[in-house]
Write a structure and sequence with these properties.
This protein has 414 residues and is an alpha/beta fold. Helices cover 37% and strands 21% of the residues.
């Protein structure tokens, strides 16, 4: 009987929180129509929230297929509504899951005021810059600013746990690069220079003078380009398995130059199993990662790449990575030695895409950079070993603010 009383109390409190959503609603973009279903597993109920411009309607009986389904428990739901925890922190603690439009799932929290009129803990918004519209997740209210840049085929969702880890000290902006995720997909070269210019334009639009940049894979290479182009705008670089120009294995370059990214506009079928398999190939030890993450990543990739411009952007960026010249007037390794902002390189010992052996080349051209090789880790350390990775990033950022601080010269095991 006590158990039923507890469940009834949780249900009543949850119903009360859902009842306040219409008056807390902050509105959405003009013409935006979305349906969100929230399932509270411990009370066995599902609510449907319909969002229309400046109107929010809550139903206790779902009617149709939602754009996204969010699952949690009543206690977590109430904590979210009270602002005691953010959705990203709940996701990190595996107290919340989502299937469908992941951007909508994350942005849902930011559409409602907290009690007493407080602003939400995070918000999803579009930043319009010259030539593109950049989707940005912003969280935290720290004095320092951090920008997180995802890898090829990824999106800001690959940094959800990083946002939660850095937001106590930073105002964090996790972005979708132009051509990826929810950002616009213009007809462009999708070169590293293109991406770096748009990151700098984003910083201008958000009035960010200097920032700590964190990038994974392609995002690491873009962060390096920003550091090379505008060193005064970069406080530090934390580079997680960054894409680097290959010195060997370039025999296919003549053929790749002939292949046009525009061929990606042709209709193609992307199978869920194939895409989720690609996710697992980036992970050295799958037992460390929640299996649902592969499904979430695959769903998001397939949904995004139903768009022909998204496929063209993906192939254009992949082509740039493969064809980047290692040496010469614009060669990567010759330019890298000119890097001025302090840099941390984190490599995965078992990375199949960007070998940790690159650390030897980095040590030659950037002897003052700090390098760490994570044993038994793959290509996305912020997902596979999040606690250790985020500890290293936080410590490195703090160390760059200390007068006279020096960085390790050789790659070190973590």
């Amino acid at each position: 009987m006590a158990r039923h009383a507890t469940e009834n109390t949780a249900l009543q409190r949850a119903e009360g929180a859902f009842g306040t959503l219409p008056e807390r609603y902050l509105g959405s973009e003009e013409g935006r129509r979305a349906t969100v279903q929230i399932r509270l597993s411990d009370v066995g109920r599902t609510w449907e929230v319909e969002l229309r411009d400046h109107r929010c309607k809550v139903r206790t009986s779902p009617r149709g297929r939602p754009d996204v389904t969010i699952g949690t428990d009543a206690g977590t739901w109430l904590a979210l509504r009270e602002g005691e925890i953010s959705g990203l922190e709940a996701f990190r603690q595996r107290r919340l899951w989502a299937r469908g439009d992941l951007d909508l799932a994350v942005g849902f929290e930011g559409m409602f005021r907290l009690p007493d009129g407080r602003p939400p803990l995070l918000r999803l918004h579009d930043v319009r810059v010259r030539g593109a519209r950049i989707s940005c997740l912003t969280a935290g209210h720290g004095p320092k600013r951090a920008i997180l840049i995802h890898g090829l085929g990824g999106a800001k969702s690959s940094f959800f746990e990083t946002v939660a880890a850095l937001s106590p000290d930073h105002t964090v902006h996790a972005i979708d690069l132009p051509g990826f995720g929810a950002s616009s997909k213009p007809l462009a070269s999708y070169s590293f220079d293109f991406f770096a210019r748009h990151v700098l334009r984003l910083m201008d639009a958000l009035a960010i003078g200097r920032a700590d940049l964190v990038g994974n894979s392609l995002g690491g290479r873009v962060a390096l380009e920003v550091g090379l182009r505008a060193p005064s705008r970069v406080r530090s670089l934390s580079l997680l398995a960054p894409s680097m120009a290959f010195r060997r294995g370039r025999g296919m370059a003549p053929l790749v130059r002939l292949l046009r990214p525009e061929l990606g506009a042709l209709p193609s079928v992307m199978r869920h199993g194939l895409v989720s398999g690609g996710f697992w190939r980036m992970i050295a030890h799958p037992d460390r990662v929640d299996p649902s993450l592969a499904d979430i990543a695959a769903d998001e990739f397939i949904r995004t790449h139903r768009s022909a411009p998204a496929r063209v952007a993906f192939y254009a960026a992949a082509r740039q990575i493969y064809l980047e010249a290692p040496h010469g007037p614009s060669g990567f390794w010759d330019r890298l030695e000119l890097l001025r902002p302090p840099a941390l390189f984190i490599w995965g010992e078992e990375d199949r895409l960007v070998p940790a052996a690159f650390s030897r080349h980095v040590a030659t051209v950037l002897p003052d950079a700090r390098q760490v090789v994570l044993p038994e880790c793959g290509h996305v350390p912020q997902i596979e070993l999040p606690e250790r990775t985020h500890e290293l990033v936080r410590e490195f950022i703090a160390s760059t603010e200390m007068p006279g601080a020096t960085q390790a010269r050789a790659a070190e095991p973590a």
